[in-house]
């Protein structure tokens, strides 16, 4: 059997809203990197109700980027809703989702793929999640001082080794990290990173309840609750600031008060309609409806 055939295939899911310029830049980059990984691959872009020239860019790139498919929302639904739309269409065992509102580097997928294939020495199984961790900013002096005091306290009174400081993304992100760790048990330093590599079968174990960017916390919290193995790896350094989050107010309340860990009969949400370009449909054929280019 060839080395190419022995490796798990990879589906790259890219949610995008009004991101014509970013997609025109990043899709050729993914199209150049993925064939070098020596494994089957596909790229699925979910156009989340874009009102700019995103449909035209996608229509043009369908002819130049290998194994590209496009799904569409009629109105903006959010990152989580895009994942919910894409997941039934994914055909490979590994799924990387990548946002386009931050300049993620496609080649960062290489070490993440290597890591997800390593079995844990204690549990004897590979991870379900490898999360990319973005570079932080310069920490304020008060944060540096408090961090040293905290480390020294635990070193002196508990004998714990000194730990490396977590990346600093600002006070708002610091509070969000603290809050998600206390409430949901999320162990990641950069839970809101939109560059995460998952096992597709794991994501299909439970419903995705969040519509917006809270989905990053939801999925990691559920993975923690289900005792999944996960790891966090640094991404290429970028000077760009972190993008604002698109949060849907009901997401936190829904996930906290009524978390779902099994699939039940689900009613389609209002306003979520999709079309696909060259995407499989229920009868095994392909939709030939082109993405609008006007």
Secondary structure blueprint with pairings:
Blueprint: H1 3-6, E1 10-16, H2 20-33, E2 41-48, H3 54-61, E3 68-73, H4 79-86, E4 94-98, H5 109-116, E5 129-133, H6 141-158, H7 171-184, E6 195-199, H8 200-203, H9 215-225, E7 230-234, H10 249-257, E8 274-277
Parallel strand pairs: 1-2, 1-4, 2-3, 5-7
Antiparallel strand pairs: 3-8, 4-6, 5-6
Helix pairs in contact: 2-3
Q: What oligomerization state is this entry in? A: single chain
Give me the Rg, rounded.
20 Å
Counting helices, strands and paired strands, the structural category is alpha/beta
Helix content: 25-40%
**CATH homologous superfamily (4th level) name:** Spore Coat Polysaccharide Biosynthesis Protein SpsA, Chain A
- The name CATH uses for the topology is Spore Coat Polysaccharide Biosynthesis Protein SpsA, Chain A
Mean pLDDT over all positions: 83
**Widest beta sheet: strand line-up:** 7-5-6-4-1-2-3-8
Number of domains: 1
The CATH C-level class name: Alpha Beta
Overall geometry comes to globular
By DSSP (H or I, 4+ residues per run), the number of helices equals: 10
Separation of the first and last Cα atoms: 45 Å
Query: Biggest sheet, in brief?
Result: 8 strands, mixed
Count of β-strands? 8
Gross CATH architecture: Alpha-Beta Complex
Low-confidence stretches: 1-5, 270-294
What proportion of the residues form beta strands (DSSP E)? Answer: 15-25%
H/E series, N to C? HEHEHEHEHEHHEHHEHE
């Amino acid at each position: 059997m060839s080395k190419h055939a022995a490796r798990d295939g990879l589906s790259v899911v890219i949610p995008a809203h009004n991101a014509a310029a970013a997609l025109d830049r990043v899709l050729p980059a993914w199209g150049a990197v993925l064939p070098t990984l020596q494994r089957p691959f596909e790229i699925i872009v979910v156009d989340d109700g874009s009102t700019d020239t995103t449909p035209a860019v996608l229509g043009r790139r369908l002819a130049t980027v290998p194994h590209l498919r496009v799904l569409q929302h009629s109105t903006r639904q959010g990152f989580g809703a895009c994942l919910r739309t894409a997941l039934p269409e994914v055909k490979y065992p590994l799924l990387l989702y990548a946002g386009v509102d931050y300049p993620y580097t496609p080649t960062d997928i290489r070490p993440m793929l290597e890591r997800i294939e390593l079995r844990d020495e204690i549990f004897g199984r590979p991870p379900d999640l490898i999360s990319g961790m973005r570079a932080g900013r310069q920490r304020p002096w008060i944060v540096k001082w408090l961090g040293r005091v905290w480390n020294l306290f635990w070193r002196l009174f508990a004998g714990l080794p000194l730990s490396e400081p977590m990346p600093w993304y600002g006070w708002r992100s610091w509070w969000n990290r603290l809050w998600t760790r206390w409430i949901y048990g999320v162990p990641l330093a950069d839970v809101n990173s939109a560059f995460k590599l998952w096992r597709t079968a794991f994501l299909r174990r439970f419903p995705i309840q969040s519509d917006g960017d809270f989905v990053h916390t939801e999925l990691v919290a559920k993975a923690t609750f289900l005792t999944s193995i996960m790891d966090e790896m640094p991404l290429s350094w970028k000077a760009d600031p972190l993008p604002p989050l698109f949060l849907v107010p009901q997401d936190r309340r829904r996930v906290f008060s009524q978390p779902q860990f099994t699939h039940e009969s689900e009613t389609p949400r209002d306003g979520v309609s999709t079309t696909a370009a060259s995407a499989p449909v229920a009868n095994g054929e392909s939709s030939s409806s082109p993405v609008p280019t006007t």
